[in-house]
């Protein structure tokens, strides 16, 4: 049995050049999200990866108390599919190498972007959709998709994200912060749900109203 008191929060963050306009808002929103999760009962570990033309793992499964402030340095294009494929594969391999009792009872993958895919070379849309569906259906992972300047529900659905777990936000200070706040609320509810109990609902209508005009 996995550890029901342990949650892995894995964040895949777009750092393409277009993120420069919301750089400071993204840093503040991410830091507030982490602070909210630190205050929740139970243990949490965090993995952060960033992508532009390439993929970079910033840190892996560190205790949430040790997560540093985000330092986002936008550049390059948007290899979104490659990023999702890489972080999914890496987490799966890491967890498979652990004894079951040491694996987190909750695995939550949060994907954040401000634009459409335009640079991936390794992963296709169908391959990403298959990977997400498998991890959710077989291993009960939870994927969230946050998209600025795009229809996140429509774009996310094509990649395998559930519509209720995808949310669009406007690229302005107020709405970037709100997007991270409603995500923190969902993750807190998920962490507080006993194993075997029904999963919490995804983003609500009020969440969606809070994140865009």
- Report the C-alpha radius of gyration, rounded: 16 Å
Low-confidence stretches: none
The domain count comes to 1
* CATH top level class name: Alpha Beta
Q: Mean of residue pLDDT?
A: 96
* Residue fraction in strands: 15-25%
Q: Label the overall shape.
A: globular
Order of helices and strands: EHEEHEHEHEHH
Give the fraction of residues assigned to helices: 25-40%
Brief account:
By secondary structure, the chain is of the alpha/beta class.
Describe this structure in words.
- There is one protein chain.
- Helix content is 38%, strand content 24%.
- The chain has a single domain, classed as Rossmann fold (3-Layer(aba) Sandwich), CATH 3.40.50.
- Strands 3-2-1-4-5-6 form a 6-stranded mixed sheet, sandwiched between helices.
- α1 runs parallel beside α5 (173-191) and α2 runs parallel beside α3 (125-139).
- The model has no long low-confidence stretch (mean pLDDT 96).
- The chain has 6 helices and 6 strands, in the order βαββαβαβαβαα.
- With 213 residues, the chain is α/β, with parallel strands linked by helices.
Which descriptors apply to this entry?
213 residues; Rossmann fold; 6-stranded mixed β-sheet; globular
Helices, strands, pairings?
Layout: E1 3-14, H1 23-38, E2 43-51, E3 55-63, H2 80-96, E4 104-113, H3 125-139, E5 142-148, H4 152-159, E6 166-169, H5 173-191, H6 205-210
Parallel strand pairs: 1-2, 1-4, 4-5, 5-6
Antiparallel strand pairs: 2-3
